[in-house]
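Sample A.
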Amino acid sequence: MSLSMNSNIELPTARVQTQTASGMVAMMVGIGLLVALVSMPWWAHQGTIRSVVELCCYIAIAQMWNLMAGYGGLVSVGQQAFMGVAAYAMFALAQNHGIDPFVAVGLCLLVPALLAVPTYALLHRLDGPYFAIGTWVVAEVFRLIVTNMPYLNGGAGMSLRVMTQYSAHERAIGITILCAILLLVTVGGSYWLLRSRYGLALTAMRDNPVAAASQGVNVKKLRFLIFIAGAVGTGLVGAIYFMTQLRITPESAFSSNWAMIAIFIVMIGGIGKIEGVIIGALIYFFAERIFGPYGSTYLVVLGLLTLVIAIYARGGVWGLLSKVVNIPLFPTRRTLVSRDEK
């Protein structure tokens, strides 16, 4: 009797919701900004375009570091290794082999992807600070190898003279399109990944790798894939940035400043959050232009700012803002709501 009575009871249905109103607004604004970025060659000065390209590179390299450290637990101080090898591969393909430089940007990504496999095989047994030091050592090894390669003109560096076949306007069009692709791959790709079923595994791995592994998450495989993705994304940053500069040297391509910039941006903005990366990149971008002329004072200001954030606001600037107003721009939290709710 009880069974028949219970069978007449209608259980409420529910659905999982990840998108929010603020997320939809942010998506529309993001699309508008990408359109504005691509259209810049028709209304912006060359100096403004170069500055925006630099900002895009800061956002992208910081997001790759954020994906690795904030979710994969892979704290690297040697991502400049993949930035340098990709940029040099692009220069070699374009300058030494006559491949169109814009095509070479895509082809050169095979180099960091391939080199990331043995690199991770060498470093994956290390943990914490040992892993970080290991990545820095690998970056230095790559720098020394490139410096002693006559094929890449050694320590003198290379110039991308083949770009002279394009006018300044044509170069600007190509580079802004590449920057839009860069943001879609790094920021958009990370957002898509975190909203997918792998995002749940990444979040669990970030919070507690041991517990995640006990629940069936393949932590080793995920970390390997995140490392490869970080290497390719960082390589794309290097190819685009040095294409804009039209020249590359081992000291600039493999400079540890790139890792420091990424770490600063993520720490200031908020680790594990895409919104934090964007805020941190904007802070660094404008701080560099305001305080940069003051030399060492500029570095002191950035260091003190990082120290204050690390001590009093570990969630970064975005973490502080989220305590006041809960408006996620890249929502990844899954909420169970009734299907009757709109």
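Sample B, a different protein:
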Amino acid sequence: MAADPGKLEAFVGKMAGDMGAAMSASLVQLGDRLGLYKTMAEAGPSTSSTLAARAGVNERNLREWLSAQAASGYVDYDPATSKFSLNDEQAMVFADEGGPAFMAGGFGLIAAMFIDEPNVAEAFKTGRGLGWHEHSQCLFRGTERFFRPGYNANLVSAWIPALDGVEARLNEGISVADIGCGHGASTVLMAKAYPNSRFVGFDYHAPSLERAREVARDEGVADRVRFETASAKDFPGEGYGLVTIFDALHDMGDPVGAATHIRERLAPDGTFMLVEPNAQDDLSGNLNPVGRMFYSASTMVCTPASMNQEVALALGAQAGEARLKAVADEAGFTHFRRAAETPFNMVLELRP
């Protein structure tokens, strides 16, 4: 090989950074699990001894963790005082779980990708796929905690108001079905915002719905939310004023069949709100940090999940608007528009 020495050095440097980031993922999950970030946010600038006492952990182990976090730029370190701290931005990302920028929770999803790698490797060999339900338990909670901050920041304040006439109808009172609801983060959020409407969350993964029911009780909306085990192609009910799918259509083996069933269950003036990862229609347009995340997750979770089901269309998490419109067209929807977007998501409005 006749590698260019300068390019090789730069690429090795990039790999060193990537390996450091990958190794740091387990440390972020550790800090999240032990409440270390929240302890730091509450304590302010502190030595490792002070933080260890407050967190109830061993000081020597914590000091090494803090050092790694400082090297990553995840926490600040003052050499003059030997104190560690979280600045405001770091605190929002690592310690404020109810905020719009919280990201620590998503590292459970990353952990599942490592744990399940042997099973995904087998799926590569056989083409059988790997069902969502066959993954490590940390995937389900990690996925909820990864997407929930974006829903908290945008769903009620921007996405629903961007839909034509939907917010007014929710305030008046309609029936809403949230398909593929998982732990119910989106369902509960809508129920809290629109008390005159009634909500049902459907998911084929029954253990996730147990968690969703707990969340609904804790948030005080169990009187107007229920959760039922059903797939996107067979959920019951009719005359829904709004049907939603959040970041899940691309995981389905038969998204056309799911969208067709949704169209048949909508009221004549009902709306299907489809939220999917924000992607360009061509690969080159997705070669960026967000695309890197979603293609990686899609390789390990989304595409194998679809291939484990009937039809196995395998849209992938970076399907793009054109492919999603093709699904909507085939399912019989005549109205399709992009109503809103963020760097992570596109919000699509579909009507029969």
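Observation for Sample B: The first strand starts at residue 76 and ends at 78.
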